[in-house]
């Protein structure tokens, strides 16, 4: 019992003590491939966040270890990601200049606070909160963020100085104004890097597969595109001294050695100011992480515990805060690569962390001549997949309200910024939900032939009675839709002078709140004044239990609650 309880809180105990030798090769290969991706990506995302490149490497060591111990996914690859990096840049950029000590302090505080939020939510089991942000809102947010991220890298791809802003139109305007200052060598390196990355991700993979190479070898080669670009153009800049001769901007010195263990700066005023941003970062990171974790787990019939994910991600972010990193979460592309490369357990992430640590200890001098344009190209190619046109098309065909929420989120992120944009999207989604459910579908039903089945009179040939109307309400009743229900019932009564009975079919009603109950009381009285009786049928057990705790049944009489609509119609002589 104690062991089972411990496994619940520390999932690593389960996979460590049940580790199979045959899983080792897949974990090692996957760990190697993800590390090849993560080293350049980590540095690139750190620059996107406005931090030194080593911050991305530091955020890829201890956080991976912490998640491997406390997370529930066996293949999720945790580390720096584009959207969270952009959110960090947006917050820190409003409070300090890039490179200033306070800027790095803000990043550490955000990591600690977001980690603490996630950990707390996991402890009190708030994993269900992932359901409160709709997929269209997430899609609109990520698509807009991808555009902002992509355009924010123009300064590195073109080698020009642009004002630090997260508004696309301002970036484009400044780029046009500084077109004469574009560094041709930098532009060629950036374009060449994008070409290398796209070639590795597409044509090269097809070429290798057509030559019947082993899938593992194909994975290693094609996923090494960022490494190829780094090696190729770093060597080119070093050999030709393009940094001094043509002004190509390079990374420069990256400190070697273990990540520094240091306390997170304390500033009560700053901490209070960062609470909203830290909470949003934690929520966005959690949703991105748990979405990909669930998707990959389902392919192997594994289970993801949302509350364990909160704890695992919380521990990872706290680890990042105390080792010079910044907020992290599960990355989509790296997780998919980890999965397809054969990762079986979190040991793959431990291998990745070990290789990143090795890089930090002895390989950082090799990155001195790494052009900023290469890292910008890695970011641009990575975020292209975040542009989600498919969801917009699907939502537009299926639900215009969801499509409107997606579009409003997309526009608001571009117009007012990351934090306010996603808040606006969430609010818009909730408003759309309230609007949609405030006018629920109400169908007048009739008997199908001589059967016990009742269907919508507008869709089927059915029999009805002049003195009885049966209304099926296809939604739960709550404060936003009760007046609509009341108006609908009274309209049917006013349009049919011979009506004596109204039967509300409650098969789709899962809950009746206090406001709706008061409306039902009023409806009973209003109908009785017009010599019409109200009846209910097919009331679900939990709903009826709540009604019986009140005097509703007494108020309903001589109306009744019937087990089925057929029973109600026969009792009311409508056969």
Description:
Strands 4-3-5-6-7-8 form a 6-stranded mixed sheet. A two-stranded antiparallel ribbon has the order 1-2. The radius of gyration is 30 Å and the shape is elongated. The relative contact order is 0.14. The protein contains 28 helices and 8 strands. The protein folds into 2 domains: 2-405, no CATH class; 442-571, STAS domain (Transcription Regulator spoIIAA, 2-Layer Sandwich). 63% of the residues lie in helices and 5% in strands. It is mainly alpha-helical and 575 residues long. The longest helix is centred in the middle third of the chain and has 32 residues, at 268-299. The model has no long low-confidence stretch (mean pLDDT 89). Strand 6 (501-505), helix 25 and strand 7 form a beta-alpha-beta unit. Helix 7 crosses helix 16 (268-299) and helix 7 (101-123) packs antiparallel against helix 17 (306-321).
Record the SSE blueprint.
Layout: H1 2-9, H2 12-17, H3 24-48, H4 53-58, H5 62-70, E1 78-79, H6 82-93, H7 101-123, H8 135-152, H9 154-158, H10 168-177, H11 184-201, H12 203-210, H13 215-222, H14 225-240, H15 242-245, H16 268-299, H17 306-321, E2 329-330, H18 332-340, H19 347-363, H20 372-384, H21 389-398, H22 400-416, H23 418-437, E3 442-447, E4 454-456, E5 468-473, H24 482-495, E6 501-505, H25 514-529, E7 533-537, H26 541-548, H27 552-556, E8 561-562, H28 565-571
Parallel strand pairs: 5-6, 6-7, 7-8
Antiparallel strand pairs: 1-2, 3-4, 3-5
Helix pairs in contact: 3-14, 3-18, 3-19, 3-20, 5-17, 5-19, 6-7, 6-16, 7-16, 7-17, 8-20, 8-21, 8-22, 8-23, 11-14, 11-20, 12-13, 16-17, 16-18, 21-22, 22-23, 24-25
């Amino acid at each position: 019992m104690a062991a089972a309880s411990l496994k619940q809180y520390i999932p690593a105990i389960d996979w460590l003590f049940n580790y199979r030798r045959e899983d080792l090769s897949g974990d090692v290969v996957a760990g190697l491939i993800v590390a090849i991706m993560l080293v350049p990506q980590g540095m690139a995302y750190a620059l996107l966040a406005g931090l030194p490149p080593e911050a991305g490497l530091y955020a890829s060591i201890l956080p991976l270890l912490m998640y491997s111990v406390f997370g529930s996914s066996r293949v999720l690859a945790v580390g720096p990601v584009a959207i969270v990096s952009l959110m960090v840049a947006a917050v820190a950029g409003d409070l300090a200049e890039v490179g200033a000590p306070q800027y790095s302090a803000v990043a550490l505080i955000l990591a600690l606070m977001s980690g603490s939020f996630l950990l707390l939510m996991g402890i009190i089991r708030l994993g269900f909160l992932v359901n409160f942000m709709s997929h269209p809102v997430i899609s609109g947010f990520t698509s807009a963020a991808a555009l902002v991220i992509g355009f924010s890298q123009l300064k590195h791809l073109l080698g020009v100085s642009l004002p630090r802003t997260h508004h696309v139109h301002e970036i484009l305007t400044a780029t046009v104004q500084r077109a004469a200052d574009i560094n041709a060598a930098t532009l060629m390196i950036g374009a060449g890097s994008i070409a290398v990355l796209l070639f590795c991700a597409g044509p090269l993979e097809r070429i290798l597969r057509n030559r019947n190479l082993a899938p593992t070898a194909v994975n290693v080669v094609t996923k090494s595109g960022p490494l190829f670009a780094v090696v190729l153009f770093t060597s080119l800049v070093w050999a030709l001294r393009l940094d001094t001769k043509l002004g190509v901007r390079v990374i420069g010195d990256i400190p070697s050695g273990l990540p520094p263990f240091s306390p997170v700066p304390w500033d009560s005023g700053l901490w209070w100011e960062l609470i909203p941003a830290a909470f949003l970062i934690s929520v966005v990171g959690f949703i991105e992480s748990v979405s990909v974790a669930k998707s990959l787990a389902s392919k192997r019939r594994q289970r993801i515990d949302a509350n364990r994910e909160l704890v695992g991600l919380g521990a990872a972010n706290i680890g990042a805060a105390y080792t010079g990193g910044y907020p992290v979460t599960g990355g989509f592309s790296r997780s998919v690569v980890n999965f397809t490369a054969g990762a079986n357990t979190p040991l793959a992430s431990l291998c990745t962390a070990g290789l990143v640590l090795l890089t930090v200890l002895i390989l950082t001098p090799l990155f001195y001549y790494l052009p900023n344009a290469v890292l910008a190209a890695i970011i641009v190619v990575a975020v292209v997949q975040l542009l989600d046109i498919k969801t917009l098309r699907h939502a537009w065909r299926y639900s215009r309200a969801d499509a409107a929420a997606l579009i409003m989120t997309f526009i608001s992120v571009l117009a007012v910024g990351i934090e306010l944009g996603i808040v606006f999207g969430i609010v818009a989604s909730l408003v759309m939900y309230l609007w949609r459910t405030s006018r629920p579908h109400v169908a007048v039903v009739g008997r199908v032939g001589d059967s016990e089945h009742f269907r919508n009179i507008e869709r089927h040939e059915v029999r009805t009675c002049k003195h009885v109307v049966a209304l099926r309400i296809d939604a739960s009743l709550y404060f936003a839709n009760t007046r609509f229900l009341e108006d609908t019932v009274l309209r049917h009564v006013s349009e049919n002078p011979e009506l004596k009975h109204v039967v509300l079919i409650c098969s789709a009603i899962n809950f009746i709140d206090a406001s709706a109950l008061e409306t039902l009381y009023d409806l009973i009285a209003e109908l009785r004044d017009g010599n019409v009786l109200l009846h209910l049928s097919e009331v679900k057990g939990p709903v009826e239990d709540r009604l019986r705790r009140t005097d509703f049944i007494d108020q309903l009489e001589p109306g009744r609650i019937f087990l089925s609509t057929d029973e109600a119609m026969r009792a009311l002589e409508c056969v």
